[in-house]
């Protein structure tokens, strides 16, 4: 019996020892995530969202940076958009967000309000980061309430992506300055001649409604609220639903089922509104040829457009603000980085990078030509920084618009629902 | 053929082997036992009990993860009951529970009855029918389901043969919930195995006696099988409905993470998830979670209360 017990004891001791070791290891690796080390090398965590090509390109630019700054190591983290912001929210609330991260206008005020974002002007004043040479005033996309909360890496603007073959076959030609009436007439012609829908569901896209409102002297957001009325939105959704029923806009049931493919590349419709730098996806997904066309206007001139931007932001509590600023500076100004990134995150934001990269493929050439055309037309306005809660409202707009499209919610009720959800989101 | 009822197996282990070690030994054994349990115990306290108690507190606060929680009393609950999306999620979940659970159990029982008779390849069939229960909750099966029930896919084409073209279930708010129901029913293997075990326990002599008295198969099922397996049936109903209330993965994956279209697959937990992790309304989400706990507890209580009327325990018969 005694023998038996001692065996047991030994086993127990071993088990305890083993678990202690694991705990120790866990603790050790826990510290490994920290940043300083004896020889003055610091580690910065850099996080972004995006697909595989972006990850490959960014890793190349990181290698370039580490070569130039051997004392700074970059630890990359990346995932898709939805997962990124969920993870970010958890990390940031725990006081442990990445030191540098990709950001967009939707989240500036939200995370500034929560005390997460660094005002990068302080670093610019300290000489660690240059705010010069940003093209077409795109730097303002990273500003809100007098602070520089993000540094743009690329500029993009909304566009109408069209199925070139379908438009040609139907004999309709989009022109700069064309009106909404002309646009919908064109869709009608396409529907009559080709028996396919014209659009994939324009009225659920918050950014397009923003352009429409701007054409009419309003905007989707004011500094702290929605910039339109319930009646405005009811009208917008009523018109949209009418066009679903008439077949001008594709059947939402079909659109839903081809996801994650777009309804345009699946051949369900001949055009779709989206950001111009997203247009690369259609070539890969679909069988037709795709091109960029101008946003329809209300008055025959003003498209309501502005330059949006993906940007780099920094965590206000980072232990290495100087290194973080140097990193952002390198990523936004270094010509080599521009060559590697291309237009993946939009037209390169600084003139150094813009001039370093010459697109060779049709898609990038098209995006470049499109943005030049828009800039030349003098229609680019100033971006309105989004109030805190805009991310939730954008998702709600898409969802409720989808309910309208499916005929499940009446436009008036839908508009009411959006306003009530927006109120909660602004308060959150 | 006489069937001897199996006596319960004697508790295995050292307790019976070493009565001489006495109290001290036993206490030491207990200690060792607790030590071995400690990883689980620590996990339970830190990862389950702790967060549960915390969420009970959060349910009465407004908490966005960044600012400290602020006590708001019953506000979360009153907002919740008036929230149209919350009402929608309750409606969707109830529909799912009420449709999926009985159908799944019916199928499980039916197949169990077939498999209860000995025939060749029995083990193989059992394994094959049980398989979906093992993999059904996986994300990959969710993707397969989405593909199966989409426009112009297998299900849609099969329907078209019978002139029932709905253009795919996944994009249609009126049908998509039934794709989830089908996924649940497909996993009938787990309750089936439990039914099988129950069926094996029914004494043969009862059937023999009934047969001698001239009872047909239907009558035998109704008067012998059903009452005899009613405890097992009760267990399955309880387990499956509790399970169904908590459905999440299938709705999330089949709907491409949005629990749509038009909120048609917005099951309770999916809305909870959206509120908590997308919108960071942790107070509201906690209130939702506790409301679900209470609702499930009520359903369980009603089921337990009802078992007096229909569950037949052998002890009572003796």
What do these coordinates show?
The complex is a heterodimer of chains A (428) and B (318). Chain A has 17 helices and 12 strands. Chain A has helices spanning 2-32, 52-68, 81-93, 105-113, 121-125, 164-170, 180-194, 206-215, 230-245, 252-258, 280-285, 321-333, 335-341, 351-356, 362-376, 390-405, 411-427; strands at residues 42-49, 72-79, 100-104, 143-144, 147-148, 151-156, 158-163, 197-199, 269-275, 290-293, 308-314, 347-348. Chain B is mainly alpha-helical. Helices cover 71% and strands 1% of the residues of chain B. Chain B has helices at 14-17, 22-58, 75-82, 84-116, 122-135, 139-148, 154-161, 176-186, 189-201, 204-212, 217-245, 249-254, 268-278, 282-310, 314-317, and strands spanning 61-62, 70-71. In chain B, strands 1-2 form a two-stranded antiparallel sheet. At the A-B interface, helix 1, helix 3, helix 10, helix 16 and helix 17 of A face helix 2 of B.
Keywords:
heterodimer, A: 428 residues, alpha/beta, 6-stranded mixed β-sheet, 4-stranded mixed β-sheet, 12 strands, 49% helix, 14% strand, globular, B: 318 residues, mainly alpha
Structural class of chain B: mainly alpha
Net shape of chain A: globular
| Helix content estimate of chain B | over 70%
Number of helices of chain A: 17
Q: Give the number of helices of chain B.
A: 15
**Strand tally of chain B:** 2
- Residue windows where pLDDT falls under 50 for at least 5 positions of chain A: 1-13, 15-34
SSE topology:
The complex is a heterodimer of chains A (428) and B (318).
Chain A: H1 2-32, E1 42-49, H2 52-68, E2 72-79, H3 81-93, E3 100-104, H4 105-113, H5 121-125, E4 143-144, E5 147-148, E6 151-156, E7 158-163, H6 164-170, H7 180-194, E8 197-199, H8 206-215, H9 230-245, H10 252-258, E9 269-275, H11 280-285, E10 290-293, E11 308-314, H12 321-333, H13 335-341, E12 347-348, H14 351-356, H15 362-376, H16 390-405, H17 411-427
Parallel strand pairs in A: 1-2, 1-3, 8-9
Antiparallel strand pairs in A: 3-11, 4-5, 6-11, 6-12, 7-9, 7-10
Helix pairs in contact in A: 2-13, 6-7, 9-17, 16-17
Chain B: H1 14-17, H2 22-58, E1 61-62, E2 70-71, H3 75-82, H4 84-116, H5 122-135, H6 139-148, H7 154-161, H8 176-186, H9 189-201, H10 204-212, H11 217-245, H12 249-254, H13 268-278, H14 282-310, H15 314-317
Antiparallel strand pairs in B: 1-2
Helix pairs in contact in B: 2-14, 4-8, 4-9, 4-11, 4-13, 5-9, 9-11, 11-14, 13-14
